[in-house]
Specification:
With 203 residues, the chain is of the alpha+beta class. It has helices at 2-30, 47-56, 68-71, 87-98, 152-165, 173-202, and strands at 37-44, 58-59, 62-63, 76-82, 101-107, 119-125, 144-151. The protein is flat.
Length: 203
């Protein structure tokens, strides 16, 4: 069963890459002229990552996805990186005018005294007119895609942290303290740069 799911995902990989091209074009067009965009990127989930998520994600001890080929929302995922935190709302507004939103979520530490991963995650329906030819030749194609909006400082923290966080093994207290210091520094720098920008633009 698991091997069948992985093989089905590999068969659809080319269609997902074509969808990435289509979504990249529309997001780049719609954000043309919007200030403070650092970069726009999309990717297709690697088959190995898809396999791991489909087989290991659990909720209350049960597998999270009954039909991972259809239900995993980030088979196609995009990211918009902006300069300042005050840009996130305007960029998200443009994206929500372009796509039909399923849900939006701010991902950040629950403890107000903690610092760590932050990102604005949107789940949108895949528009019919952006689905490539042959989309319906495969069964159980996804109906949504993920689109994140982050600042440069959020991204600068998240990417190395993601790389380090999946190396396995127990981290020493000293390493955990260093990571906490980096996370707090990135959080402070992000907000300070936004405050500076807003102060200067008032002048």
């Amino acid at each position: 069963m698991v091997d069948d799911i992985l093989e089905s995902y590999r068969k659809r990989y080319g269609l997902l890459k074509s969808l990435v091209d289509n979504l990249t074009d529309v997001v780049e067009d719609d954000l043309t002229g919007v200030p403070h965009i650092d970069r726009i990127s999309f990717r297709v989930k690697d088959p190995g990552s898809f396999f791991e998520k489909s087989s290991t994600a659990l909720v209350d001890g049960q597998r999270k996805y009954a039909n991972p080929l259809r239900e995993i929302e980030d088979q196609v995922a995009g990211r918009v990186i902006v300069f300042y935190s005050s840009d996130i709302g305007s960029v998200s507004g443009v994206l929500e005018d372009t796509f039909r939103r399923v849900e939006s979520e701010v991902r950040e530490p629950e403890d107000e005294s903690a610092f760590g991963y932050e990102s604005y995650h949107h789940i949108f329906l895949i528009p019919e007119h952006h689905k490539p030819d042959g989309w319906y030749d495969e069964e159980d194609m996804p109906i949504t895609f993920e689109l994140q909006v982050r600042t440069l400082f959020m991204h600068a923290w998240a990417e190395p942290q993601h790389d380090l966080g999946y190396k396995g093994g127990e981290l020493s207290r000293e390493v955990r303290r260093k990571l906490a210091w980096v996370a707090a520094s990135a959080w402070g720098a992000d907000r300070t740069m936004d405050e500076i920008y807003r102060e200067i633009t008032k002048m």
